[in-house]
Design a protein that fits this description.
4-stranded antiparallel β-sheet, two-stranded antiparallel ribbon
């Protein structure tokens, strides 16, 4: 969990962790932006997918309190990171 938490922190930092650039900021923006357009997703309306994460595209349609642009991923046993 500690490694995954550091990975998530690196995404939140725009690709930097502990003062070291891991990914370009443009890469993180691409990863965390909807790449599926208006294609339906398994999560339903209001959701899209970036490169490895789900993305809220329409808060009302998604029926979530997470704002548009929020991103994250869930595990098989109900674990979530947002």
């Amino acid at each position: 969990i500690a490694d995954y938490a550091r990975f998530a922190q690196m995404l939140l930092n725009g690709g930097e962790l502990d003062g070291v650039r891991i990914l370009r900021a443009e890469t993180v923006r691409m990863m965390t932006s909807n790449q599926t357009g208006s294609q339906p997703t398994l999560r339903g309306q209001g959701w899209g997918f970036g490169l490895g994460v789900g993305v809220v595209t329409d808060q009302a349609a998604a029926r979530t309190k997470q704002p548009n642009g929020s991103y994250g991923w869930g595990g098989i046993y109900g674990t979530q990171v947002w």
